[in-house]
Amino acid sequence: MTFDPDQHSHRRYDPLGDEWILVSPQRTLRPWLGEEDAGGGGAAPSYDPACYLCPGNTRANGEINPEYPGPFVFANDFPALQANVPVGAGGEDALFRSAPARGEARVICFSPDHARTLPDLTDAEIAAVVDCWCAEAADLGSRHAWVQIFENKGAIMGCSNPHPHGQVWATDMLPQLPATEHRTQGQWWQDTGRAMLLDVAAREAGGPRSVIETESWLAIVPYWAKWPFETLLLPRFPVQRLPELTPAQRADLAHAIGALTRCYDALFKTSFPYSMGWHGAPFDRTEHPEWQLHAHFYPPLLRSATTKKFMVGYEMLAEAQRDITPEQAAARLREVRA
What we know:
Elements: E1 10-14, E2 19-23, E3 72-75, E4 103-109, H1 123-141, E5 146-153, E6 165-171, H2 176-192, H3 196-204, E7 210-213, E8 217-220, E9 231-235, H4 247-267, E10 274-279, E11 294-298, E12 301-304, E13 307-308, H5 314-317, E14 320-322, H6 326-335
Parallel strand pairs: 2-14
Antiparallel strand pairs: 1-2, 3-4, 4-6, 5-6, 5-10, 7-8, 8-9, 9-11, 10-11, 12-13
Helix pairs in contact: 1-4
């Protein structure tokens, strides 16, 4: 019997996250792979008087939003991080260690329009969001080691407000997942003298896992993807952090983000939920040629607008598992590209 990755269960290694993923393509023989089921809910209004994030409305803390015309940033009214934490918060017990966590948290409204998510915006409007991401990273990175820019889109991802927005959490430490990427990219650089994700971009361009390709950017379903339609957005040039992007690279990034998120929405004819976020080199005033800026998109949908992939059971107790192969997922996303 000859091994066929589209038919036989196998494991794939993620060199960035340093973990294995079980791939079970034989499960796609079940008769639901091509199902399309539009999600519920009608179109959202452009303005919602009850929304805490719409222009002119009063937020939960009593502050009034300005009549903002584009991206709007404000300090999170309920931040997960505090700027001032007593030194005594730490502990050195080998079994019950703790450490203080200091930082800042902000919210970024992408648009004054309550109904328009990223795929609904023009390239110029998305470019304004990209510029905002870059400005926030530069500002917060001037005094924090890590700046995590992210978006939770959709109620299924735990988003507490439907107004299109993202968040920025800046911390005085390097969180767990970026710390792993810091180690794996550093080891790759040490072993090869090259940036790992530049190698990935070069190998994936024009390949079966590529979804969106522009002059400067590449969106792929990574070889080691965990989520069914997970994508990795990569620059095709060396760059370590968001603020380092040139105006032309930012404009091209906006185009790539619009194209990718519109593929998502077209796949199941719904406003596609996901969690996405940017990873780049730490803001430690050190050159990191081993690092390559990138964005992760983690959508939970599996076979329809209402059917979610759950990471439970085996995934929680052993390792991540997926049914459709990354190649099959990329092909389906390419098929619906406008």
